[in-house]
Amino acid sequence: MTHFSDWPSLTNACLQCRACGLCETRTNVVVGVGPETAEVLFIGEGPGENEDLQGEPFVGRGGKLLDLALHAVGLDRHRNIYIANAVKCRPPKNRDPLPEEQAACAHWLEDQIALLDPKIVVCLGRVSACRMIKEDFKVTREHGLFFEKDGRLYTGFLHPAAILRDPRKKEEWFADFVKLREKIAEVCEHTAPIDPAEFA
Ligand code: URA
Hints:
Number of strands: 5
Number of domains: 1
Largest sheet: 5 strands, mixed
Structural class: alpha/beta
Distance between the termini: 41 Å
Strand order of the largest sheet: 2-1-3-5-4
Shape: globular
Bound molecules: uracil
């Protein structure tokens, strides 16, 4: 169930949200980025400093790495996937969002999922995967596996920040994107991979 019948009303309402104290310290609400017809949704945790300043998810160093991995398998945030965060406003000094802040924010992501109706949901990092897939999701052991829930496929990937911290994990991270490309070919109807040469 969504409270919104179209994206402009959802986006406008989200941009004006004052449901928790984070509205006092944020620069921008980070609603999400991507076409409203995307069949694949990526979900991060919440905006950091760069995202707060620019109003877009994953625009820092981790975001650049994410774009590289996406482009390698023909995916792009402006053309065939949507990227959102579980929490839409940056907590001061990057502290974890409080339980009441998370609770106040949760319906925005639910509304986005209801409106987008994605075939595949990719959770970036443990926090996002534990929230969306199962409470005890073990990202080191279960990353890249697909779980069926509510008629959609969910998977959890390592967070780009984890790859920046430990670049030795890059290969297994990329392998999950390749598996994702295969799953997209299997279950998505109109997500044609973009020729990676277009991003070179
Ligand atoms: N980390 C996240 O989880 N989301 C962002 O948008 C940026 C960094």
